[in-house]
TrEMBL record, chain A:
This is FAD:protein FMN transferase. The keyword Metal-binding applies. Keywords: FAD, Flavoprotein, Magnesium, Metal-binding, Transferase. Pfam families: ApbE. It catalyses: L-threonyl-[protein] + FAD = FMN-L-threonyl-[protein] + AMP + H(+). It comes from the Bacteria. Mg(2+) binds at residues 153, 256, 260. It is an enzyme of class 2 (transferase). One of its GO terms (molecular function) is transferase activity.
From TrEMBL, chain B:
This is Oxidoreductase. Keywords: Oxidoreductase. PROSITE patterns: TAT. It comes from Roseivirga spongicola. It holds the Pfam family GFO_IDH_MocA. Residues 39-163 form the Gfo/Idh/MocA-like oxidoreductase N-terminal domain.
């Protein structure tokens, strides 16, 4: 039996890599097929770029209309709301219209002045809107339209968590799973693999971290440019305090969402989250090329 | 579209943040139907498609009451039962034997997500027992059995809907009814094209906790474990890529063109994966449509996912790309003046994708001299003019249409007779591929039931 079997899949506008340890090759392949089918299925439900997805339908709801949701859409929206509250609004899935405007500006459809005004309009409309996600049944209600969902900041993390449940069903105990290298989900039977090692790097600093049964996500500007705007203001003129932020959490949904949020939060706000949020294990940030790690009871 | 009582809602709701709510502000009656008004339905087959019906489709259909699931693999049916009962506080039962289930349960309807070779017998027996049937495509893996199914529907008067879900997809229905038939946006249709590209043909195997006894499964027509999990790859059990994938898209050719092909040319082979069924195929279909001759061109690739799955319709005034998985794109021929299409925009049927008029500075939509703007293409905007918009994912909408038809609130979008006509040309494509490639003429009488 080979030590590991690596599989790759393109979906959600990125690639997923699944490395399964301590299993027969055929069984690992079978598991990877099921995992990737699950990702495709989730993309079909959660992507705002899929015209038939739940999220596309939610985004088209008119005043006083309601819509039944898939169980998974309901689950991820509830998680998104929790992350929104726990990050004091720094994580927000209600920004699809803003994203559409950025894209139009990039493609030359809107000029700078129009883009600025459009963002103002989208933000006002969002602030006046209200959508109700029923906590008791998979259903959403539109009280006032004007907010449009984009699950880009949590959808991939959520997909990794769903695969975690699938792997448990399949009896697979040790694997690594990454979504576009920005979120990494680690599951390991300690007897087989005590930990996995990964580097995290800043301009003048580099660390090797030992990861065990944890999820880690990163957000930064180095690879994707200044793409993170501040949903609290609806503007993209935010000057990040950090070069990059890594968030380790119990679930990938949380690490994914909070890596986005922490990038625009202040250091005291991040310290408070690390100290009080049960889901968050540690946060590492890079400022001026140097890495600093915050853990519970070990803040800077 | 369901409406809420906004006044009651606002009275008791609490807002937070930018308007996302997670509270229980009032008792919304999401499903006002009484149990007696609901359709008692069972799902047969708890694999990929069956799970989709159980967990994604049924819960969104207020008039459907899932009473039982059935699968010959114990772990699969028990997992489905337990998960559904836990998620929806239900009391669904699980059966191995289909006939025991229809004997014991008071079923109005049954939905089959089973291997093709089982469809005919179960369907005919259910229809004869007074149970309405929803059957996943293909109807069968041979033309004779497909015909028996359509005839059973005709004879019993019970409903038989076949699972080609594009037929209940709002965008496809709108395209057919409003854009093509009513407005003739594309002019005269001359070509239909389609592709289904995927990375590989999966070969599945049991999970560790699937305790399978092949001797037990022999009585259901399977010789090996591989046949149970990968029945699509065997000619005696399924129809391969042409039935599984191509039939969805070629059926849309027939629907949109308003005709069935009089000639098919087809070839294919299993040279890449070496399975019994072809993994690569291509076909050309010749039509005499009400508007004149038209050609259909269809391909299926199983070792490259690039480009994905789409259908493309070409007319003499425009063309359209449509797909279940990606956004629509409608292109106007440069010879057709923009003003001619403006009326479709004004009616709210289509929107210029590069428009964003709501954010433009000038009423004319002129943003001044700036970076190069993208090519003009259009998308479907509002589905106005449609009597019924499901606003549900196509698989859910198709099953919803079936359940509502059982309740006599709708009529079937795609009954077995309509499906049979499309399957005739699918079986002819099979015939040509199995003969090593060829041209087959189809007598119009062959489409009759």
């Amino acid at each position: 039996m080979n030590d590991s079997h690596l599989f790759e899949h393109q979906a959600m506008a990125t690639y997923f890599k699944l490395n399964i340890y301590n299993e027969e090759a055929k069984y690992a392949k079978n598991a990877a097929q099921q995992a990737f089918a699950l990702i495709d299925d989730l993309e079909g439900k959660l992507s705002r770029f899929r015209p038939d997805s739940d999220i596309s339908r939610v985004n088209k709801l008119k005043k006083d209309e309601q819509l039944p949701l898939d169980f998974e859409t309901w689950e991820v929206l509830k998680l998104a709301i929790s992350c929104h509250i726990e990050s004091n609004g720094a994580f927000d899935v209600g920004v699809a219209e803003h994203m559409k405007i950025f894209r139009a500006a990039k493609e030359g459809i809107l000029n700078e002045y129009e883009t600025f005004k459009a963002l103002e309009k989208a933000q006002n409309s969002k602030e006046e809107s209200s959508l109700f996600v029923d906590p008791d049944q998979p259903r959403v209600y539109c009280v006032n339209p004007g907010m449009f969902f984009d699950l880009g900041g949590i959808g991939k993390g959520y997909a990794l968590d769903k695969i975690d449940a699938l792997m448990k069903d399949l009896g697979i105990e040790t694997y690594t799973l990454s979504a576009g290298d920005s979120t990494l989900h680690i599951k390991n039977n300690l007897a087989i693999k005590p930990h996995f090692t990964y580097p995290i790097a800043a301009k003048q600093d580099r660390k090797i971290v030992e990861l065990s049964n944890i999820s880690v996500s990163a957000s930064g500007t180095f690879h994707q440019g200044n793409h993170i705007f501040d949903p609290r203001t609806g503007k993209n003129d935010f000057k990040p305090e950090f070069d990059r932020v890594w968030v380790a959490a119990k679930t990938s949904s949380y690490s994914d969402a909070f890596s986005t949020a922490c990038f625009i939060l202040s250091l005291p706000e991040i310290e408070d989250i690390v100290q009080t949020n049960d889901q968050i294990e540690w946060v590492t940030y890079a400022i001026d090329g140097k890495l600093t790690t915050l853990r519970k009871n070990q803040l800077s | 579209m369901e409406k809420t009582n906004r006044r009651d809602f606002l009275k008791r709701s609490s807002l937070f943040g930018t308007g996302l709510l997670l509270a229980n502000p009032f008792n919304i009656t999401a499903n006002p139907l009484k149990a007696a008004d609901k359709v008692n339905i069972a799902i047969v087959g708890c694999g990929g498609r069956g799970s989709g019906m159980i967990f994604s489709n049924i819960p969104k259909i207020p008039s459907a009451n899932l009473v039982a699931v059935c699968d010959i693999i114990e772990s699969r049916r028990e997992r489905a039962k337990e998960r559904y009962n836990a998620q929806y506080d239900a009391n669904v039962k699980a059966y191995e034997d289909f006939y025991e289930m229809i004997e014991k349960e008071n079923l109005d309807a049954v939905a089959f997500a089973t291997p093709d070779f089982w469809h005919m017998q179960h369907t005919v027996d259910a229809l004869n027992a007074g149970i309405h049937v929803y059957c996943e495509k293909a109807m069968s893996n041979n033309i004779e059995d497909a015909k028996k199914m359509a005839l059973a529907m005709k004879k019993t008067g019970n409903l038989l809907q076949i699972g080609r879900q594009r037929r209940s997809n709002d965008r496809y229905r709108f395209t057919h009814q409003v854009l093509l038939e009513q407005e003739k946006v594309l002019g005269r249709l001359t070509h239909a094209m389609g592709q289904w590209n995927r990375s590989e043909i999966w070969t599945q195997q049991p999970n560790k906790n699937d305790n399978i006894d092949i001797k037990q499964l022999n009585k259901y027509g399977f010789d090996t474990i591989d046949q149970v999990y990968n029945w699509r790859n065997y000619k005696k059990l399924g129809g391969g890529v042409v039935s599984d994938l191509g039939s969805h898209q070629i059926d849309i050719f027939n629907w949109f063109l308003g005709a069935y092909p009089h000639t098919v040319y087809a070839t294919g082979n299993n040279s890449y994966f070496g399975l019994e069924q072809a993994d690569t195929m291509a076909t050309i279909l010749e039509y005499d449509t009400p508007g004149g001759p038209a050609i259909g061109i269809y391909e299926n690739i199983s070792n490259s996912r690039a480009i994905g799955v789409y259908e493309r319709f070409i007319g003499d005034e425009g063309s359209m790309n449509i797909s279940e998985s990606t956004e629509n794109k409608i292109f106007r021929e440069a010879s057709i003046p923009e003003e001619k299409w403006q009326k479709f925009v004004d009616k709210g049927y289509i929107a210029n994708l590069a428009d964003m008029k709501e954010y433009k500075e000038k009423e004319l939509g002129d943003s001044g001299i700036k970076e190069t703007a993208p090519q003009i293409s259009y998308d479907i905007k509002d589905m106005s003019g449609m009597k019924k918009v499901y606003n549900l994912q196509a698989h859910t909408a198709h099953l919803y249409n079936f359940v509502e038809s059982v309740r006599e609130k709708e009529t079937l979008n795609y009954d077995a007779i309509e499906s049979y006509k499309s399957e005739v040309c699918i079986y002819k494509i099979h015939e040509a591929i199995n003969a090593g490639g060829g041209r087959i003429k189809i007598d119009p009488k062959e489409y009759d039931i």
